[in-house]
Write a structure and sequence with these properties.
Protein name: Fur family ferric uptake transcriptional regulator
GO molecular function: DNA-binding transcription factor activity; transcription cis-regulatory region binding; zinc ion binding
Number of strands: 6
Number of helices: 3
CATH class: Mainly Alpha
Strand order of the largest sheet: 1-3-2
Cofactor: Zn(2+)
Order of helices and strands: HEHHEEEEE
Helix content: 25-40%
CATH topology: Arc Repressor Mutant, subunit A
Keywords: Metal-binding, Zinc
Distance between the termini: 49 Å
Largest sheet: 3 strands, antiparallel
Strand content: 15-25%
InterPro entries: FUR, WH-like_DNA-bd_sf, WH_DNA-bd_sf
Number of domains: 1
Shape: globular
CATH superfamily: Winged helix-like DNA-binding domain superfamily/Winged helix DNA-binding domain
CATH architecture: Orthogonal Bundle
Amino acid sequence: MAKRNTKAKQLILDSLKNTRSAISQEVLQKELGETVDRATIYRVLNSFCEDGIIHKILSDDGKYYFAVCMNCSEKAHKHNHFHFRCLQCGKIECLPNEIEVKLPEGYRSVNFNGFISGYCSGCS
C-alpha cells in the first residue's frame, strides 16, 4: 500500500528542511502551532525515520532530536557521524565526518549514537 503525502507530512518535512539543524518534537510543535497536533507529529516523525527521510538523535540532555537524512533509504541508514550540541545556543548539528568503528567478528552495527557537547563556532 502506498503512503499518502498529507498536508501535515509536507508541513513537518518543510519545517525540518528549513531549520538546517536537528530539532526536537517540542520545537516542531511550537513552529507548527495549531496546524498539526502533537500525536500526528509523533506519528509522522516515526514514519519518516522508518522511511529513511530523517534520523533520530538521542542528545546528552535526554531528548530526541530529528534531522533530515542525506543519502539514506528505508533499508540503509548511514549515520556514522557525531552530533554536536552547543551549550550556549542549543543548536544541534550533524558533523560531516563519517566515523568507521571496527566491531569484533560476528557483530553487526544497527545504530550509532555519537554525541559531543560544547560551544559552536558562533558562541565560542
